[in-house]
Design brief:
Layout: H1 3-17, H2 23-34, H3 40-44, H4 51-66, H5 70-94, H6 99-113, H7 115-118, H8 126-141, H9 146-151, H10 159-169, H11 178-193, H12 198-218, H13 223-238
Amino acid sequence: MNQYASWRDETIARLLSQKNYCFSDLCDIVTILRGEGGCPWDIEQDHHSIRKGMIEECYEVVEAIDRDDPVLLREELGDVLLQIVFHADIEKDAGRFNVDDVANDECVKMIHRHPHVFGQVKADTSEQVLANWEVIKTEEKQRVSLSDQLEAIPNILPALMRAQKVSKKAAIDADSDTYALIDTLKEQVEALGAMTEKEAQSKMLGQALFGLTTLARRLDLDAEECLSAHTDRLIKSVK
C-alpha cells in the first residue's frame, strides 16, 4: 500500500468515527474525493466544469440572507466553502497553491487594507474607511487610470449591477440633477418607440437601462435589488 492509500484509509476511518468536523476535515474529504480511489465525478472536474456551481451557490447564499433564514444560510455558506476548498485542491494538485495560501493572502490583504485597525491611519467613519480602502486597492492593483479601474469591474456581474458600478466609478452625469436624468430617460424611451431597426432599438434600450442605473445611484437605490423586488411582487400578484 502506497503512502497516500495508507493516509486515505486512516483518514476515512477517523472521519467515520467522528461526530463533529472542522475546516481541516473538509479539506481532507475533498482530497479523498479527488484522489486515487475517490469519486469518479469529483476526479473529472476542473475549474471550468464547476464554475457555474460557484455562481449558483453564491446566489443561494444571497437568497438565504434575503429570507433572513439562518438555518439555510449556514447550509449555503457551507456549499460556498466547499467550492473554495475544491478549487484550491485542484491548484494544490497542480503545484501552484493550496487553501492555506488562499487564507494567507486574504489575511495579508485584510491587514493591509485596514491600517486604521492594524496601523496608525485614522478613520472614524465608514465613509473614511471606504475611501481609504479604494486608495489602497488602487495602489495594490496599480490601476492608475480610470480605464484600468473600469475594466477591473468583472463583466460576469449581472448587467444592472455592473452598469451601476461603472456609473459610480466613472461619475457618469455627476453634474446632472435627478430631474435632468429623468428628462433624458423620457427622451430615450420616446426615441425608442419611434425606432423599427433592431440594432438601433438595442443601442437605445441599452442607453436607457444604463441611465436607469445612474438614476438609481442618484436616488441611493440599488437597481438590481429594485428590479428583483418588483419581479417578486409581480409573481405574487399572479398567484
